[in-house]
Amino acid sequence: MEQEAQHVVSALQDAPLGVIHSCMRFLGRIEDFFAVIDREGCFVAVNANFARAYQSTEELIIGRNIRDIMEEEEFERLFHPYLNECFTGTDVHHSSNFDFPGLDESMHMDVGYYPLFDESGEVHAVLLTFHDVTTFKNMERKLRQLAHLDPLTQMPNLRFIDYQLNKLQARCERQGEGFSLLYIDFNQFKSINDEYGHNAGDQVLVEFGRRLRSTLRRGEFISRIGGDEFLVVVSEQLSEEAGIALQERIKSMLYEPITITSTLKLRVSVSVGMAVWPTDGRDLATLKAIADERMYRDKKPNLN
């Protein structure tokens, strides 16, 4: 349909208005919206889909000014600058969300503005085409979300937290502030998978993620960075005392056993290591390595 619409646009750019008006009935069978607007801003022709989107008919819209069928703010934001540019003889394209009064849901449209020339070579009208790309945009948004989410816990993944860390580091450098990050790793997690199965291990990770999210405070970000490892980022430079308190808060989330089945509840624990920017290091790789080392130092007593 999109290619068919483009062929129609090319054909209509040099056609007389009478021909364009006649073609609108054919264009009603194409899913795209079409409209032709003259220099006074009045509709010369529209197809049925465009009229329907504005809760009207072709007969009632033709002859009306574009400002008559929409709010002034909508006209200035979505139409006016592009119409002005197109009347200079230039093809114009933009993409935006539209809330059409005749449709139930907002639609993301790719809009094309094509100048129509008279016999003297002057632009006497503009052909507007609206192509619905809502499904594509929604899919694009979901793919972006999936790229930044851990599929098991639905928490941000390493890619997303690294992006946030880089932004946070840049802000702290500008403002002379600091931040803290904490590595979290389950103690003897392999034994859970070995003894109770990977499904039980997955349930432990999901429940811990849920408990972490439920206690999240302002300025704290969490992520599952792989396996049984998690990362908490705090957008302030924690003192040693505050860091110990946060580590204890994280560990206390697992004081309550995790229910796997009606007959199985598991008691699990985690080890935590913290590093502070810029006190412990100014680059992220060093900071992560220090937090990881301190986490393993915390883990040693739990291995005995």
Give a short synopsis of this structure.
With 304 residues, the protein is of the alpha+beta class. It folds into two domains: 2-138, Beta-Lactamase (2-Layer Sandwich); 148-303, 2-Layer Sandwich (Alpha-Beta Plaits), CATH 3.30.70.
Helix and strand topology:
Elements: H1 2-12, H2 17-27, E1 33-38, E2 43-46, H3 48-53, H4 58-61, H5 72-78, H6 80-86, E3 92-98, E4 107-117, E5 123-132, H7 134-147, H8 158-175, E6 179-186, H9 189-196, H10 198-214, E7 220-226, E8 229-234, H11 240-252, E9 258-261, E10 264-266, E11 270-277, H12 284-299
Antiparallel strand pairs: 1-2, 1-5, 3-4, 4-5, 6-8, 6-11, 7-8, 9-10
Helix pairs in contact: 9-10
Domain GGDEF: 177-304
Protein name: Diguanylate cyclase
InterPro entries: Biofilm_reg_signaling (IPR052155), GGDEF_dom (IPR000160), Nucleotide_cyclase (IPR029787), PAS (IPR000014), PAS-like_dom_sf (IPR035965), PAS_4 (IPR013656), Rev_trsase/Diguanyl_cyclase (IPR043128)
Arithmetic mean of pLDDT: 86
Helix/strand structural class:
alpha+beta
CATH domain class name of the largest domain:
Alpha Beta
Distance from N terminus to C terminus (CA atoms, Å) equals: 68 Å
**Cross-sheet strand order for the largest sheet:** 2-1-5-4-3
Number of strands: 11
Please identify which CATH superfamily of the largest domain we are dealing with. Answer: Reverse transcriptase/Diguanylate cyclase domain
Helix content: 40-55%
Summarize the main sheet.
5 strands, antiparallel
Helix segment tally: 12
User: How many domains, as an integer?
Assistant: 2
- Overall 3D form: elongated
Radius of gyration: 30 Å
> Any idea of the CATH topology of the largest domain?
Alpha-Beta Plaits
